[in-house]
């Protein structure tokens, strides 16, 4: 029972922190203004890890490499802790666990896309004039705009978030299956 609780808490903590790091990198990639409440919250949560890494990993071509490396480091620590809780020596499986850490990072990114898309869809129905809508639109537009070219609107209803959700869910299944097959247990 303690192992299940520990795995749940680690999964929740590291998934949220990894998503915050990836969101920080994504906000810079889409050139989101840094002076909004969402950006400020993400910066406050992640500065302790990202700012020291900026001395080594500089941003290039609009990519915040310090945030990406920080997310990868968080993923490596997460996978190592999960394997240790399962009773396996993480150093004996180091090369495999590095691949699983990258797959975990991809999983966090895909989950972030789902969360942002669901939040945007809910707010567009409940409160389309919310101050968060421009931020959510800017973050999800690179994924939804290409789909909007192919998916017609039915009666003024945008179905592209549903299609994006289905595509991302399929990708999540593939990534999860790959991670499970590499470790013989779920991460």
Topology:
Layout lengths: L1 H28 L7 H17 L11 H21 L8 H33 L5 H17 L11 H24 L4
Pfam families: CCB3_YggT
Organism: Trinickia violacea
Protein name: YggT family protein
Query: How many strands, what sense, and barrel or not for the largest sheet?
Result: none
Kindly name the structural category. Answer: mainly alpha
Q: Helix-strand pattern, N to C?
A: HHHHHH
| Percentage of residues in DSSP E strands | under 5%
Tally of separate domains: 1
- Compute the gyration radius: what is it? 18 Å
For the record, give the distance between the C-alpha atoms at the N and C termini, rounded to a whole number.
Answer: 17 Å
Low-confidence stretches: none
Shape verdict: globular
Count of DSSP-assigned helices: 6
Helix content: over 70%
Q: What integer is the average pLDDT?
A: 91
Total number of strands: 0
């Amino acid at each position: 029972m303690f192992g299940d609780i520990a795995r749940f808490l680690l999964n929740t903590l590291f998934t949220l922190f990894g998503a915050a790091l990836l969101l920080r990198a994504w906000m810079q990639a889409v050139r989101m203004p840094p002076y909004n409440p969402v950006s400020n919250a993400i910066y406050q949560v992640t500065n302790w890890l990202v700012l020291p890494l900026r001395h080594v990993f500089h941003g290039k071509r609009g990519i915040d490499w310090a945030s990406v490396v920080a997310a990868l480091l968080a993923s490596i620590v997460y996978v190592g802790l999960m394997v240790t809780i399962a009773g396996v020596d993480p150093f004996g499986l180091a090369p495999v666990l590095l691949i699983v850490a990258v797959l975990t990072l991809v999983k966090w990114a895909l989950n972030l896309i789902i969360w942002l898309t669901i939040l945007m869809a809910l707010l567009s129905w409940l409160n389309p004039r919310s101050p968060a809508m421009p931020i959510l639109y800017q973050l999800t537009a690179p994924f939804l705009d290409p789909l909007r070219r192919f998916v017609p609107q039915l009666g003024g209803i945008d179905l592209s978030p549903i299609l994006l959700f289905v595509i991302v869910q399929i990708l999540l299944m593939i990534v999860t299956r790959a991670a499970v097959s590499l470790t013989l247990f779920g991460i």
